[in-house]
Amino acid sequence: MTILLLGYGKMGKTIEQIALDRNHTIVGRIDVSNRADMDRLTDDAVDVVIEFSSPEAVVDNLRYCIGRGWAVVCGTTGWLSQRAEIEAAVRERGSAFFYASNYSIGVNLFFRLNKTLAKFMHNYPSYHVSMTEIHHTEKKDAPSGTAITLAEGLLNNLPHKHRWAVSEEGKPAAGNTDDAIVIDSVREGTVPGTHIVRFESDVDRIEISHVAHNRQGFAIGAVIAAEWLASRQGVFGMDDLLGE
Ligand SMILES: NC(=O)C1=CN([C@@H]2O[C@H](COP(=O)(O)OP(=O)(O)OC[C@H]3O[C@@H](n4cnc5c(N)ncnc54)[C@H](OP(=O)(O)O)[C@@H]3O)[C@@H](O)[C@H]2O)C=CC1
Ligand SMILES: O=C(O)C1=N[C@H](C(=O)O)C[C@H](O)C1
Asked: Are the C-beta atoms of 104 and 215 separated by less than 8 Å?
């Protein structure tokens, strides 16, 4: 399979190693400095684009790839207010698009555990639910895409909560947050990604966490998604790949 790496930073480079190990061919490594190289690729030179860039760049990148008819696996976070527009463009073009806030198989198991825990806690509103996500200091968006997916899983199962709200580095979230799941975003060192969901009462705490030791899990998942997407048309996510 031929892969175009759109975004060649920490994730792009980790994905490259996994893709080469799985006998794929990298036809381009695009960062800010060489975007014009994409114009020189023919439409059929690319089986799948793997896009891990930045919240500011991703939507233009996706529009460009959809316009070329290229299948795209996107991992960039922090842009989902424009998701509907992008997915409509994919359907109109008849191309293929895959998005996940987190490609790690372990995190996707954790998403399911999170929903199951929320269903258990549904009848115990006295337990105060909150989340913490911890990432490296280069991360541009907060809260993390993974934290937002976890919050959505909780909101769908906890009727007394209606939204999520952000606090940063331990500072309280703004306003009255009784109906909110408060997410604390911590940025420290080179942490690849840690997510904690907790239910706290006056007498005890129930807590689940996922800790990534490195970026390999995200990268393997993204390459598997690319292999899966290459022969498909439409809009997909991890539940399509892993089975509901
Ligand atoms: N879904 C998932 O499983 C995961 C998602 N992520 C997300 O992926 C994204 C990238 O993460 P990471 O690799 O750590 O970030 P990095 O900052 O290490 O890399 C980003 C790359 O994107 C490039 N880039 C920026 N703007 C453009 C542009 N306009 N066109 C092309 N390339 C561009 C940068 O180029 P330059 O170096 O020249 O600035 C750099 O090569 C983030 O949004 C992060 O949250 C991260 C891990 C897992
Ligand atoms: O920026 C990162 O590094 C990560 N971003 C993703 C997110 O925002 O959830 C996934 C992972 O946590 C690493």
From this structure: no
pLDDT digits (tens, 9 = 90+) for 9-64: 999 999 999 999 999 999 999 999 999 999 999 999 999 999 999 999 999 999 99
| Fold (CATH) for 105-211 | Dihydrodipicolinate Reductase; domain 2 (3.30.360)
Distance CA 7, CA 52 (A): 5
Residues 95, 205: Cα–Cα separation, whole Å: 46
List alpha helices for 94-215, DSSP H.
Answer: 105-121, 145-155
Q: Kindly give the number of the ligand 1 atom that is closest to the alpha carbon of 61.
A: 30
Mutation choice for ligand 1 from 6, 15, 53, CB with most ligand atoms inside 8 A: 53
| Beta carbon of 77 within 6 Å of any ligand 2 atom | yes
* 75 annotated to a ligand binding site: yes
- pTM, whole model, 2 decimals? 0.97
Q: Is 35 annotated as a binding residue?
A: yes
Measured from the alpha carbon of residue 144, the closest ligand is 2
Q: Return residue ranges of the chain for CATH 3.30.360.10.
A: 105-211
2-103+216-242 has which fold? Rossmann fold (3.40.50)
